[in-house]
Design brief:
The complex is a heterodimer of chains A (about 80) and B (about 675).
Chain A lengths: L10 E7 L3 H9 L7 E7 L6 E5 L2 E5 L1 H4 L2 E5 L2
Antiparallel strand pairs in A: 1-2, 1-5, 2-3, 3-4
Chain B lengths: L1 E6 L5 H9 L3 E5 L6 E6 L6 E4 L11 H12 L4 E7 L3 H12 L5 E6 L1 H6 L3 E2 L1 H8 L2 E4 L8 H13 L12 H21 L3 H10 L2 H6 L4 H18 L3 H20 E2 L5 H13 L5 H46 L3 H19 L2 H17 L1 H14 L8 H6 L4 H7 L6 H10 L9 H11 L4 H25 L10 E3 L8 H35 L14 H9 L11 H9 L6 H10 L4 H7 L6 H13 L4 H11 L2 H29 L1
The chains are: A alpha+beta (about 80), B alpha/beta (about 675).
Chain lengths: ~80, ~675
């Protein structure tokens, strides 16, 4: 499953980061590397983008980009 | 001695810069690009510090990152001050590990240590310093704690030329790859002056500019490919992910030992609570509207007018004093007229507006520095995506309501060229505050009961036209893919008063400079054009002047819009020097002394409908020369900037025409 499939409050561990070029590099630079634990904290009022919590800080990314990050859900 | 000040966004970099330099700073541009460069003297010592853009990595993608890299590699600073947010240490150290590879004397400023301590956390400074191989100084930039020691230690590091003690943060396949590549490119790195370790890491990472700069031959490129392939196979991942993972793994390892963090800090917990309201599904929009309305009300309705009133009184007093002094001294009438009717009337009416602009910037920097602007981007992203932009463009556009010049400059924070250009093209449609005196005079003259309604209507119209133009641009001119929207939401913090004050002072200075250069010259030019005829003889009636004939020449363009008076076309022309000049020119040309008198004279030139048509044209036509200069610089092309002016004026004409024609049906 991908990060986009997580519900608000759900969390998972990243297994792979897709995408290309500037986007992918940016995701990696911001700490979305395989093995990182991510929590979906919130959704913007219009349903997109989403707010993530990882490595002790908050990051916002769009749903379409979240769909490129494969995760394993924490149960 | 020159230091580069580098850190992530939102880590207190600007605050530290202000603490280090006080008011001893000057602003310029990095050569060849459009990113702002602030430089200042450190605490009256023999050391300068350059404030580099807030970045997260030395990747080769955004112009901020490229500027930073170029500065570090080509300008050869003597040392680096790397500021790190201690409450968010993992992600902040990611940049640190890349900076260390540059092999320059470097000191790490561990900011916001007070917040960490307050939440019961601790960071073992000695251990961290040992693990990173550089000096670490805990500071609190906002409280000005530890800043003196930081400056001292940074200077000492350069004097002793103490370089980072370690470069190796990797093991396994990445380690092997970097070392064998480093071995291979040693000569290249030395020849091109690129730090060896940085070069090797970037080559393994697949960094295009470094590969180019090092001028590797065919054979070496093959070896590089082979080495990277070997590493990728061994790790089961690609080069970029492998290196990001290498850095974060090392950071996790050292933080596990040196950083003790019992939980989120007080500020972070507070942020979560605030966000429960401010980014709440149902409350976010209402709160945004309330906050912005409050800002506008306080700026334009309450504080601005009071301060402007005082300013006006002061100007009037000085004018009267000068007037009687000139009369007493028996100064010749052309000079007397130049000073009183030209300079004092023109510059005075603009100056009285300065307090409003400063107040607006007070609120805007409050919103920016508190962290709310990032939430605005988060909440608004989906809306702006429809016109092909990201939530980050919302902030510059919002500033556009204050002044197009800083708004266009703020577009620099956008990482893609496409987004930046689109934002620049749309920003002037957001009605800037310089147009406000025009609206208010006309509203006073024609719609005294509905002046608020008229103003809001104009603002909304500007936004609507901006959206339509955005859709047009998205589908015609900028068909490319929008920039990735990956943005940090910083914890809410009380902004440092010093930062805000310096920011306001900067804006005030900017505005004064504009008033006494562009506007000053423009008022003199107008006065000359309006006082003399083509034979340079003084005219008794302004209708015989040079300006009248120029205005009359272009006036027919405005016949279809319902206003063809030469004084109006002339006022629009002078509005190009600065939009406030539209009012001052009308005042000069109609012989009105103050706004109130002008309002009484306007109904002789306009009907309510043509007044609306005129306001619509004024709202949308090309921005002032200061904004034009900013646009030219940010676009990096004279042709594009001029094209934008023509386009905007065309849009203004068409919209005003439509409004006027539709209006005629109802009058």
């Amino acid at each position: 499953m991908t990060l986009k499939d997580l519900k608000v409050g759900g969390s998972g561990t990243i297994t792979a980061v897709g995408g290309t070029g500037a986007l992918r590099r940016r995701l990696l630079d911001m700490g979305l590397t395989p093995g990182t634990k991510v929590l979906v904290r919130k959704m913007a009022p219009m349903g997109d983008p989403i707010e993530l919590y990882l490595r002790g800080y908050e990051l916002t990314i769009r749903g379409e980009d979240a769909a490129k990050i494969t995760i394993e859900e924490t149960r | 001695m020159v230091f580069a000040l580098i850190g992530n966004q939102n880590c207190g970099k600007t605050t530290l810069f202000n603490q280090l330099t006080g008011s001893n700073q000057h602003v310029g541009n990095f050569p060849g690009v459009t990113v702002e460069k602030k430089q200042g003297q450190i605490r009256k010592l023999h050391a300068e510090v350059v404030d580099l853009p807030g970045i997260y990595s030395l990747s080769p993608y955004t112009s901020e990152e490229i500027v930073t890299r170029d500065f570090l590699l080509k300008e050869h600073p003597d040392g680096i001050i790397n500021i790190v947010d201690a409450t968010n240490i993992e992600r902040n150290l990611y940049l640190t590990l890349q900076l260390i590879e540059l092999k320059l004397p470097m000191v790490l400023a561990l900011n916001m240590m007070d917040e960490v301590r307050e939440s019961g956390g601790s960071i073992n400074i000695e251990q961290l310093s040992r693990d990173l191989g550089i000096d670490v100084v805990p500071i609190s930039a906002s409280k000005n704690e530890g800043v003196d020691e930081l400056a001292e230690r940074a200077i000492r590091a350069v004097e002793k030329h103490s370089l980072p003690a370690r470069m190796d943060f990797c093991d396994g396949p990445v380690h092997r790859a970097i070392h064998s590549i480093a071995h291979m490119v040693e000569d290249h790195a030395e020849a091109t002056g690129i730090p060896l370790r940085f070069a090797a890491t970037k080559l393994v990472e697949g960094d295009a500019p470094t590969i180019q700069a090092l001028k590797l031959n065919e054979n070496e490129l093959d070896i590089l490919d082979h080495t990277v392939h070997e590493m990728e196979t061994a790790l089961g991942t690609d080069r970029e992910a492998a290196l990001a993972d290498m850095r974060y793994s090392y950071i996790e390892k050292i933080s596990a030992q040196a950083v003790h963090k019992p939980g989120d800090t007080k500020e972070q917990r507070r942020s979560v609570k605030i966000d429960r309201v401010l980014t709440n599904k149902y409350l976010a929009m209402p709160f945004f509207l309330v906050i912005m309305s409050l800002v506008f009300y306080l700026t334009f309705g309450l504080i601005g007018p009071i301060l402007s009133g005082w300013m006006e009184m002061g100007i009037e007093w000085v004018t009267e004093l000068t007037d009687s002094a000139l009369t007493a001294a028996g100064v010749s009438s052309p000079i007397h007229s130049l000073i009183i009717d030209g300079v004092f009337a023109g510059v005075g009416s603009v100056l009285s507006f300065m307090p409003t602009i400063v107040v607006l910037f007070f609120f805007l920097s409050l919103l920016e520095d508190s962290g709310y602007m990032a939430r605005v981007a988060f909440v608004m992203d989906k809306l702006l995506r429809k016109i092909g932009l990201s939530g980050r463009s919302f902030v510059p556009m919002l500033i556009g309501f204050g002044c197009s010049v800083p708004a266009i400059m703020a577009s620099r924070t956008l990482s893609s060229d496409r987004d930046r250009k689109m934002t620049i093209m749309l920003t002037p449609f957001m009605s800037c505050s310089a147009k406000l005196p025009i609206y208010s005079v006309f509203a006073m003259a024609f719609f005294p009961q509905y002046s608020a309604f008229v103003m809001i209507g104009l603002y909304v119209l500007g936004i609507l036209v901006g959206i339509l133009v955005g859709l047009l641009l998205k589908n015609v001119l900028f068909k490319g893919k929008p920039v990735p929207f990956v943005m940090e939401l910083p914890a809410y913090r009380l902004p440092a008063p010093k930062t805000i004050l310096l920011h306001m002072w900067e804006k005030a200075k900017d505005f004064l400079k504009k008033a006494f250069t562009i506007i000053f010259v423009a008022t003199i030019v107008i006065w000359v054009l309006q006082t003399f005829n083509w034979q340079f003889q003084m005219v008794a009636d302004a209708g015989d002047s040079m300006l009248a004939s120029i205005g009359a020449f272009i006036a027919p363009i405005f016949v279809p819009l319902g206003f063809a008076d030469w004084r109006i076309s002339t006022a629009l022309l002078t509005g190009l020097s600065a939009k406030e000049a539209v009012v001052s020119t009308l005042a000069v040309l109609t012989g009105a002394g103050a706004d109130r008198q002008l309002a009484a004279l306007l109904p002789g030139m306009f009907t309510p409908l043509t007044a609306v048509s005129f306001l619509v044209f004024t709202l949308l036509y090309m921005p002032c020369v200061a904004a034009f200069a900013a646009i030219r610089r940010e676009m990096g092309s004279m042709r594009q900037a001029v094209g934008m002016m023509v386009f905007q004026t065309g849009v203004a004409w068409v919209v005003a025409f439509v409004v006027y024609r539709i209006g005629l049906l109802f009058v």
